[in-house]
Design goal:
single chain, alpha+beta, Immunoglobulin-like, 2 domains, nine-stranded mixed sheet
Length: 159
C-alpha cells in the first residue's frame, strides 16, 4: 500500500511539473521578438554586452532605454574597460519597429570616444513618434577589443 502511494505521488508530481513547463513555454512564445529583442510595455530595458572571445581591454558594456512619457525616451550606452586604455568608445543606435514589423529600422545614432581612460558613456533625451517600439543597440570598444549590446523594444505611446 505504501509503495503504491509513493508511486502515485511521484507520478502526480511529474505530471504537475510537465504541465507547469508547458504553460511557461506557451506564455513565453506569445511574446513577439524581432532580431533578439522582445517587444515589451516595460518602462525600461537594459541590455548587456555579448562576451568577447579574446580580449584583455574590454570589461563590459551596456545599452539602456527608458520611456520618459508619451513620445519621449532616454537612451544611451556605456563602455567600461578593465584598465586605462588609449581609447574607449561607445556607439549608440536607436531603432524602432511596429508590432507587425519583422525587422528594426534605423531612427538615430551618435558616438563618443575618450582617450586615456577606462570608461565612456553617451546618452540623450529624445522626442520620438509614438505608437512604435524603440530599442537601443550599442557598439563598445576599448583598446583593441569590441563588443555589442542591445535592449528589448519598449513601447512608446503617442504624445
Amino acid at each position: 500500500m505504501k509503495r503504491c502511494r509513493s508511486i502515485c505521488c511521484v507520478f502526480a508530481m511529474a505530471l504537475g511539473l510537465s504541465f507547469g513547463v508547458s504553460t511557461d513555454t506557451q506564455a513565453a512564445s506569445s511574446v513577439k521578438v524581432i532580431d533578439g529583442s522582445q517587444l515589451t510595455t516595460d518602462a525600461e530595458s537594459i541590455g548587456y554586452n555579448q562576451k568577447v572571445a579574446r580580449g584583455e581591454d574590454l570589461l563590459t558594456g551596456y545599452s539602456k532605454i527608458v520611456r520618459m512619457g508619451p513620445g519621449q525616451i532616454y537612451a544611451g550606452g556605456t563602455t567600461i574597460a578593465s584598465h586605462v586604455v588609449p581609447e574607449v568608445g561607445v556607439g549608440v543606435i536607436i531603432e524602432r519597429a511596429k508590432e507587425e514589423d519583422t525587422e528594426w529600422t534605423f531612427y538615430d545614432s551618435w558616438n563618443k570616444f575618450l582617450e586615456n581612460t577606462d570608461r565612456v558613456s553617451a546618452k540623450k533625451y529624445l522626442d520620438v513618434e509614438g505608437d512604435y517600439y524603440y530599442r537601443v543597440r550599442t557598439t563598445h570598444s576599448a583598446g583593441e577589443d569590441m563588443s555589442s549590446s542591445f535592449t528589448d523594444g519598449v513601447y512608446i505611446e503617442e504624445p
